[in-house]
């Protein structure tokens, strides 16, 4: 015990020596302005070296964290294969769902409708049973703000033919990425059955700024060529333009194709330049594209039916409202602080001894 006490005493002495150096480290910190750069500059060399050691350890932590996210990507790939059979073809048993909203009145109404249908079957004939859920994905596109902003009126007839959206992860040993696959039934607009968008990712700290690492990030994306049928390409529009000959003064009309707003521009993204230099508008467009790709992967595809029914939208709205309420509370607290400066509390009346004891 004495040896332990002596060891601790020696450590305490060293700490006291550092804190009460030539000027006293604590005095230096107190006398300097409290910005990180000025505080670091005011430290003794020995302490600066310790800070640099901690920064080196932080870089090593970032590299270990990058490996962690690579293994998470492998787990995503593994479980995506387990999820897929559930999405391929549901069984008749899985089509049953007990709704909490059904009550006796609704059941009675349902029986009345069924009786009416039975009576009119001979006259009206059998009703055709549509395949799948009509306009399933188009309904989702219309409902979700991030997707409806991309949607144009001329896109809607095409998206009625969209049958499924799938997420495919890169294979083991390949660079980290994921692919969005848009599966279409045969249609009169293009010949592709699948349109793809590949998002390339990296999970490694930036050598120039390793401390900014926060996990995998999308670094580039690549679309696909759409084999449009003649006159069906909604990503371009034809305009007529008059040209006047300078010498003869004659006027001619020419037709010209110009880009057109469309969701299907999603498959022709801006590419990251080799030198990494892009103008501000291009950077913003690319960042928005990355956000949409991540949103498809993380939210839309895994919870598609809940976005179709609107339940996922209600969850998203509730989350936003909660954030807003927290912000409002902070504002009220700030207002309260300002009011308290001018507020003079009344002197409390003396309480009976019993109250004080309680």
TrEMBL record:
Bias (Acidic residues) ranges: 92-108, 312-343
One of the GO BP terms on file: nucleosome assembly
Source species, domain of life: Eukaryota
Keyword Nucleus: yes
CC annotations in GO: nucleus
The family this protein is said to belong to: Belongs to the nucleosome assembly protein (NAP) family.
This protein's UniProt keywords: Nucleus
Coiled coil region boundaries: none
UniProt-recorded name of the protein: Nucleosome assembly protein 1-like 4
InterPro entries: NAP-like_sf, NAP_family
Localisation: Nucleus
Stretches with biased composition (Basic and acidic residues): 1-11, 109-130
UniProt source species: Albula glossodonta
Region spans: Disordered: 1-41, 92-130, 312-358
Keyword Transcription: no
């Amino acid at each position: 015990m004495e040896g332990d006490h002596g060891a601790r005493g020696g450590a305490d002495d060293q700490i006291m020596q550092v804190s009460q150096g030539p000027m006293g480290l604590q005095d230096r910190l107190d006398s300097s302005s409290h910005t990180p750069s000025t505080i670091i500059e005011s430290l003794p060399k020995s302490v600066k070296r310790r800070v640099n050691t901690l920064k080196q350890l932080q870089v090593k932590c970032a590299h270990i964290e990058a490996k962690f996210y690579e293994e998470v990507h492998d787990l995503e790939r593994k479980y995506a294969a387990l999820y897929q059979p559930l999405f391929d073809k549901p069984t008749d048993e899985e089509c049953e769902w007990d709704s909490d909203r059904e009550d006796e009145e609704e059941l009675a109404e349902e029986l009345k409708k069924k009786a009416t249908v039975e009576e009119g079957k001979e006259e009206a004939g059998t009703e055709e049973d549509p395949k799948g859920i009509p306009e399933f994905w188009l309904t989702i596109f219309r409902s979700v703000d991030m997707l409806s902003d991309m949607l144009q009126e001329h896109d809607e007839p095409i998206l009625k033919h969209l049958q499924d959206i799938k997420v495919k992860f890169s294979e083991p040993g390949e660079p980290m990425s994921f692919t969005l696959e848009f599966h279409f039934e045969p249609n009169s607009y293009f010949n592709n059955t699948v349109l793809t968008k590949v998002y390339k990712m990296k999970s490694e700290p930036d050598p120039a700024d390793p401390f900014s690492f926060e996990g995998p990030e999308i670094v580039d994306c690549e679309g696909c060529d759409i084999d449009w049928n003649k006159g069906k390409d909604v990503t371009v529009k034809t305009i007529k333009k008059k040209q006047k000959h300078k010498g003869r003064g004659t006027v001619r009309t020419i037709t010209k194709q110009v880009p057109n707003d469309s969701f299907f521009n999603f498959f022709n993204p801006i590419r990251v330049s080799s030198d990494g230099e892009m103008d501000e508008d291009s950077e913003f467009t690319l960042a928005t594209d990355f956000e949409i790709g991540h949103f498809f992967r993380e939210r839309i595809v895994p919870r598609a039916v809940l976005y179709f029914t609107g339940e996922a939208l209600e969850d998203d709205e509730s989350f936003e409202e909660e954030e807003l309420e927290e912000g409002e509370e902070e504002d009220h607290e700030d207002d309260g602080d300002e009011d308290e400066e001018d507020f003079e509390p009344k002197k409390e009346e003396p309480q009976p001894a019993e109250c004080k004891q309680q």
